[in-house]
Design goal:
Blueprint (H helix, E strand, L loop, with lengths): L1 H26 L9 E8 L4 E2 L2 E2 L6 E9 L3 H32 L5 H17 L4 H59 L5 H20 L2 E5 L5 E5 L6 E3 L8 E5 L5 E5 L4 E3 L5 H35 L13 E2 L9 E2 L17 H6 L8 H41 L3 H35 L1
Antiparallel strand pairs: 1-4, 2-3, 5-6, 6-7, 8-9, 9-10, 11-12
Helix pairs in contact: 1-9, 2-4, 2-5, 2-6, 2-8, 3-4, 3-8, 4-5, 4-6, 6-8
């Protein structure tokens, strides 16, 4: 009779634990990084009997031998690689888009200002003595300088934003590495097959996913499932070793905004091949190049228009003065020289509008307008390419995580079936105990 009670009690314990595990799965169905768990059950075999001897061992029944965490390491590794590629494109695209917006200035940018300047010169050439048209030409020149300054300011803001984003990403990466080290320490003490260990493994994988979106990683595990993380491939510098400490990332920002990343265990700069840091580095390099292109164009505007204007004569017969000044900060320092309307050098040695007519020659294929058009076209092409790459990388990442979720995610239909099954088993175990009690009472009532 005691054996029957033991069978029922073992069932209550085992199926109660299984029901609790199903409840955890249902409660965490939408929790990021949660891997479905199943209860590992094992039959308890009773000891046999021998002549003149009755074994006092365990009765027949069931027990929980551990918690299975449903994962597929191949799918996990594939999703992290896809996440690194998507992290790179996603980190780069917003800043390239910001550069495109900065160059366009809502249609009031450098291109429109240059066109206005040359158009005002054409209008003045038709009536070179008109004071109002002379004032309009000088106002257009001032508008051109202001457009360069605004555009330079927009690019500088984007460059500063990339630097700030890189600093925040590095800080989060270091935080994740420290947190992963603590999880590794917890795994060294956790008992195999326990809910505590499964929870630590979920957190370990969540942190590895976060780290893997920032930089490409290679991960190995020891016999306690603690992670050793290397940058790039397995031969790369170690970012975190299972029983050891976490390395530290840092970022240096150059004057032009270019980024240099370092890892304390690498002994020098590192250049991640993918991930958010790689995307931010790409964006910083692109913005720096665009800023250099803008500075070069501002220098061309200053040099060519100054040369053209000083080649002519103003309304008083004096040689023309420079139109622009350019300081050490390039396009941000382009400024118009304060001139009176009669100081506009419209004439040349032969006619009252000859110098303005010659000014139109600066609008050719090698002129400043063509240079600006080439800069904008290159930027548009870069953004278009970045969008296509981001869409493709995001699609690959979503597909990889969907396959991983299909394996590790919680299926509520399956959980409902398990819930019904374990409830019935729990009720059956309770019925075994009730039957044993009723039988025992019947035997006692005989006496």
């Amino acid at each position: 009779m005691s054996d029957l009670l033991s069978v029922g009690a073992s069932g209550l314990r085992a199926y109660g634990r299984a029901l609790s595990n199903v409840g955890d799965n249902i409660a965490n169905a939408q929790t990021p990084g949660y891997a479905r768990r199943t209860t590992r059950l094992e039959e308890l075999a009773g000891n046999g009997e021998m002549t003149l001897y009755h074994a006092a061992g365990n009765a027949n029944g069931v027990r929980v031998t551990g918690i299975n965490r449903i994962t597929d390491q191949w799918l996990v590794d594939g999703s992290r690689a896809a996440s690194a590629d998507a992290g790179q494109t996603a980190a780069r695209l917003p800043w390239l888009t910001a550069a495109e917006a900065g160059l366009s200035q809502g249609g009031n940018g450098v291109g429109a200002a240059l066109t206005s300047l040359f158009n005002s010169a054409d209008q003045l050439s038709a009536d070179p003595t008109n004071t109002t048209l002379r004032s309009s030409f000088l106002a257009a020149a001032d508008g051109t300088a202001a457009a360069f300054q605004r555009t330079a300011g927009s690019l500088d803001s984007a460059i500063a934003g990339v630097g700030a984003a890189a600093g925040a990403t590095v800080t989060q990466l270091n935080t994740d590495l420290v947190a992963l080290q603590k999880v590794n320490d917890g795994l060294l003490r956790a008992r195999d097959g326990t809910t505590n260990q499964a929870g630590l493994l979920d957190e370990r994988d969540r942190l590895l996913d976060s780290i893997g979106s920032a930089v490409p990683i290679s991960v190995t595990y020891d016999n306690r499932q603690a992670a050793t993380v290397s940058l790039g491939g397995a031969a790369g510098p170690v970012m975190l070793s299972g029983p050891g400490g976490a390395s530290t990332f840092s970022v240096a920002i150059a004057v032009d905004g270019r980024l240099t990343f370092s890892l304390s265990t690498a002994g020098g700069p590192v250049l991640p091949a993918s991930g958010q840091l790689a995307g931010l580095s790409d964006a910083a390099n692109h913005l720096a190049d665009q800023r250099l292109g803008l500075d070069a164009l501002a220098s061309q505007v200053s040099t060519s228009l100054n040369a053209a204007h000083t080649a002519g004569f103003d309304a008083n017969g004096n040689p023309g003065s420079p139109l622009f000044t350019l300081g050490a900060t390039g396009a941000a320092s382009l400024a118009v020289v304060a001139l009176a309307p009669d100081q506009v050098a419209a004439a040349d040695a032969t006619s009252a509008n000859g110098n303005l007519l010659a000014l139109a020659g600066l609008r050719g294929n090698s002129g400043v307008e063509a240079g600006w058009a080439a800069l904008v076209a290159a930027q548009s092409q870069s953004v278009s390419t970045a969008r296509a790459e981001d869409a493709a990388a995001s699609s690959r990442r979503d597909g990889a995580f969907a396959a991983r979720s299909e394996m590790s995610g919680v299926d509520l239909d399956q959980e409902a079936a398990d819930l019904l099954r374990f409830q019935q088993a729990y009720a059956g175990s309770a019925r075994v105990i009730q039957t044993a009690r009723e039988t025992l009472e019947s035997i006692l009532n005989i006496f």
